[in-house]
Specification:
alpha/beta, single chain, binds S-adenosylmethionine, seven-stranded mixed sheet
Amino acid sequence: MDDANDSKYSCTESLHEIRQLGVYDVYKGTYDQVGVCDGVERVIAIGCGTAVCELEFLKRVAPNMKHLILVDKDAVCLEQLKMNLSNSLHKDIVGELHSSEAQQWQGPNIRVDLITMFHCLYYFKPEERKEFYRKCFNDWLNPGGKLYIKLAKDLHENNDEDTLNSFYRKTGRRPQLEAFTIKEEVRSLGYKIESEHHYEFYLDLKLFNNRMLHFVQYDATPPYENLDVIKKEMNKMIADGKKAYGAGILFCVVNNVSDKA
Ligand SMILES: C[S@@+](CC[C@H](N)C(=O)[O-])C[C@H]1O[C@@H](n2cnc3c(N)ncnc32)[C@H](O)[C@@H]1O
């Protein structure tokens, strides 16, 4: 681990650097499994950050996309997002950016065919999630539209112990919400999980630097004051020969009721 003073590094940048250790490749393999969704022209990406993942996903799943609406509350990642859009989107595709909390956003002017929500539901309260699904299916999506959610696994359906959440538990922080909880939640509300794709990765902890650890620091609830606890715990894991393990599910939610109607 280096000792550089990287405290100004944002969560988004930290996460990007961690994912470059091999996570992006795993994600791409997962998106490849989804296949093309026919007829998808208009898309909303909620909590997109710099949209690196969403753009890779949509390239594969919605090759005929004409309009992409991106919503994120973090204005800091907006410049990088604009750059990623101009590098990745075909010039004929309209990109529309909204710097807003998804819960407060007024929604699209015209209904869309697909909505993505990748690694963002962690930050919603239960009642906000319920209202969000309702808006997606009642107000924003066309009939037959799909909501693609991607979230980490934790205690359920997992092949190993999730490193981030086990670390949060050991140090008195709240574990992040897991995919299983959301799948149960949407089913209990009458929606249907149409498909799901599981992924997992192991990362070499010795490759983690201070900048990457800022993600662990700030994403914790409550956040850590500094990196000391994190480094201590990581050094223990490295001494025990452990790697960082992460896994998750990309799943597609549809509106059971309207699909039958
Ligand atoms: C872990 S990052 C994931 C970024 C991207 N979706 C991905 O998978 O790479 C979570 C993102 O959700 C955004 N976010 C968190 N709460 C939000 C909210 N209430 N409304 C909109 N965006 C939110 C954060 O700003 C951040 O960009």
